[in-house]
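User: I'm curious whether this sequence folds into something compact or stays loose and floppy. Could you predict its structure so I can see for myself?
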Amino acid sequence: MGALSRAQLSLDHRTPLGTLSQPEGRLDAGDPDHGATNRTASDPRIHSPRGGYAPMIPAKEALARLIEGNRRFVSDQAGKAAFARSTHPGELAGGQFPFAIILGCSDSRVPAEIVFDQGLGDLFVIRVAGNIVAPSQVGSVEFAAERFGTRLVVVLGHSSCGAILATLEELARPTEGQSPNLRSIVDRIRPSVEGLLEVEPRLDSESLVHRAVRANIRASASHLRHGSALLEQLIANDGLLVVGAEYSLELGKVDFFDGVPKR
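Assistant: Here's the prediction. I'll summarize afterward.
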């Protein structure tokens, strides 16, 4: 089979990696210098451990895929497209090439693969209560961005977030004897919520929760953009994009509102 053009590669990130021919002069899996992120600025592809290359999906294209997938989910068409292009688990045993990294809340009502109508191997998902950013979350994002060449990071919060409500309750009525592990989550959220209360102290309860959810999403996204030398470098030089989004429990719609590039 002849070498595929980059335009052909970009059409479908699910092109079987074993079918892609190896360009002349590139390293193969037997080369001792071979690495999972073997690529150059002029040839932004990831070398597959199974042979061949997977295209590096640009951040804007990845974002468009998520928006379209959520549109299918909201319109009750979810699952049809994902089923049609489904991948057998065994096909991914040799490696993964997720096109987006999702740092989301652990809430059972917000599974990223479902709300974005994606399948096996499409998303690298990190879930933690309150979609907070601690060293382990930063490290997980760094791992996926560097190893798999994933160029879109989404901080995904949601309406009526329990961790946000717990933080607001703690600020209003501090408790004693709280688990230090639970407190560590509240303490990560507290600064963005306290700042909101200082600026707008007279918000009604519903508006306060809504704005606190978004303030926390913005804070987590900002932490990823500015709290890691590796991610800063990838943002500046290699097309990494970090955006913030809120999922509506009531509507099922994801609103990308922070860091989204202008069209």
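Summary: The longest strand covers residues 152-158. The CA atoms of residues 222 and 231 lie 11 Å apart.
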